[in-house]
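Action item from last week, closing it out:
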Amino acid sequence: MKNAKTILLILTAGLLLFGIAHAKDYEVRKKAGGYDVNVKIDKNPPVVGKNNMAIEIKDSAGKNVTDAKLKVEYSMPAMPGMPAMNYKTDAELKDEGYKAIMDLPMSGSWNVEIKIARDGKTSKVKFSVDAQ
């Protein structure tokens, strides 16, 4: 009976680890002006430290936008005994999309805003993540 429990425990732990190792990216799909924006973060949920972001932008014709300037801003509002935290990073064009690193200094709820500047106009995508 002890062997059966041990085997069951090992199988359960293995499945749990397999699920964590193969978890889907954190993904957000939003509209910004006339663009469809798809944001993927390589950790789900995002974690304290470096999180790689992949940002894909498509125009109204469904073509990848590769001539925009993107800025990623992430912030945590002020709380009792702690000032607000605000960070910015640029997203760089890589192949058909943009890449950025969001370096979260602490766990909790973060507001993320991606600013897309193209043709003299700026569009914004806003969402929240809960970092662990």
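Closing note: The longest strand covers residues 108-118.
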